[in-house]
């Protein structure tokens, strides 16, 4: 059911708004919370003009520069509302790729598509985000890294931001959340559909029905696990908000002496 809802949400965006495509221009789209870009003060729709001593003409230029400078302070010159300003940030090292990241994506342009193409791309979105989730979870488990989970507080923040960003962003986010819930629900965890499926499979293969006592014990374990996961995710949300606010205060203090330079007409 969750995947059906996700498909519908993706279809509404693709069919009525268009197929989202990344713009080749160095203009910022969404910014990830708690990453160097947003904590340093960059905003959506900022145009990056220069990174270090490198002139930035395309998004590929910006990405290439950021990727090559993990854990190295770099000066970014950007244009906003007809003015040019500079700030300094330090790209975060991505342990999986060894590249620098600052938590930005390019501005999104939309291309109109037909009905059947919208259906195809909507199914593709469901598959892509499911595969992406599996890949990220597997990577975290193999490297024994702490998973970056969002709890109720984080989800409310994301929904609020998407709602203020635009209707298409809000609908697309609902689709993403539906995919996440659908995937989580099929995991072999007691109390979830995946857990019930495993128990039914056991009964079918063994020819023996699980007793009420065993079912109760298994469900209790599942409940404890789910509650622990909720507490862990909520704690992550609180720590993320605290760290983000602290980083923003530091960035504002560091950039207090910078003055915008008007664009030449």
The side-by-side strand order for the widest beta sheet comes to: 4-3-5-6-11
Succession of helices and strands = HEEHEEHEEEEEEHHHHHE
Instruction: Indicate the radius of gyration in whole angstroms.
Output: 22 Å
Q: CATH top level of the largest domain?
A: Mainly Beta
Unreliable spans are 257-261
Strand segment count: 11
> What's the number of structural domains?
3
The CATH topology of the largest domain is what? Pdz3 Domain
Rounded mean pLDDT is 80
Report the CATH architecture of the largest domain.
Answer: Roll
CATH homologous superfamily label of the largest domain:
PDZ domain
Oligomeric grouping of the chains: single chain
- Give the N-terminus to C-terminus distance in angstroms: 55 Å
Number of helices: 8
Provide structural commentary:
The protein is an alpha+beta fold. It has three domains: 1-18 and 113-185, no CATH class; 19-111, PDZ domain (Pdz3 Domain); 186-247. 56% of the residues lie in helices and 16% in strands. The chain has eight helices and eleven strands. The protein has helices at 2-17, 36-40, 59-67, 115-143, 152-165, 167-185, 193-206, 212-254; strands at 19-22, 28-31, 47-51, 54-55, 74-80, 83-89, 92-93, 100-101, 104-106, 108-111, 261-262. The strands form four sheets. The protein has a five-stranded antiparallel beta sheet with strand order 4-3-5-6-11. A hairpin with a 2-residue loop joins strand 3 and strand 4 (54-55). Helix 1 packs antiparallel against helix 6 (167-185) and helix 4 (115-143) packs across helix 6 (167-185). The chain is globular, with a radius of gyration of 22 Å. The N and C termini lie far apart (55 Å). Residues 257-261 have low confidence and may be disordered.
């Amino acid at each position: 059911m969750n995947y059906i809802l996700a498909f519908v949400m993706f279809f509404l965006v693709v069919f009525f708004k268009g197929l989202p495509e990344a713009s080749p221009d160095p203009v910022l789209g969404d910014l990830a919370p708690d990453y160097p870009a947003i904590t340093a003060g960059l905003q959506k729709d900022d145009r990056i003009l220069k990174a270090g001593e490198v002139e930035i003409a395309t998004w590929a230029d910006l990405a290439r520069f950021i990727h090559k400078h993990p854990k190295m302070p770099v000066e970014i010159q950007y244009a906003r509302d007809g003015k040019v300003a500079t700030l300094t940030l330090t790209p975060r090292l991505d342990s999986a790729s060894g590249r620098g990241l600052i938590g930005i994506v390019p501005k999104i342009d939309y291309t109109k598509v037909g009905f059947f193409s919208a259906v195809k791309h909507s199914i593709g979105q469901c598959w892509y985000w499911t595969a992406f989730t599996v890949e990220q979870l597997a990577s975290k488990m193999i490297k024994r890294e702490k998973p970056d989970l969002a709890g109720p507080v984080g989800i409310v923040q994301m929904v609020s931001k998407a709602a203020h960003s635009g209707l298409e962003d809000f609908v697309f986010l609902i689709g993403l959340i539906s995919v996440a819930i659908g995937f989580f629900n099929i995991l072999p965890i007691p109390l979830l559909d995946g857990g019930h499926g495993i128990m039914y499979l056991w009964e079918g293969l063994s020819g023996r029905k699980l007793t009420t006592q065993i079912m109760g014990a298994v469900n209790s374990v599942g409940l404890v696990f789910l509650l622990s996961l909720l507490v862990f995710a909520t704690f992550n949300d609180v720590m993320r908000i605290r760290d983000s606010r602290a980083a923003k205060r530091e960035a504002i203090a560091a950039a207090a002496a910078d003055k915008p330079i008007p664009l030449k007409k």
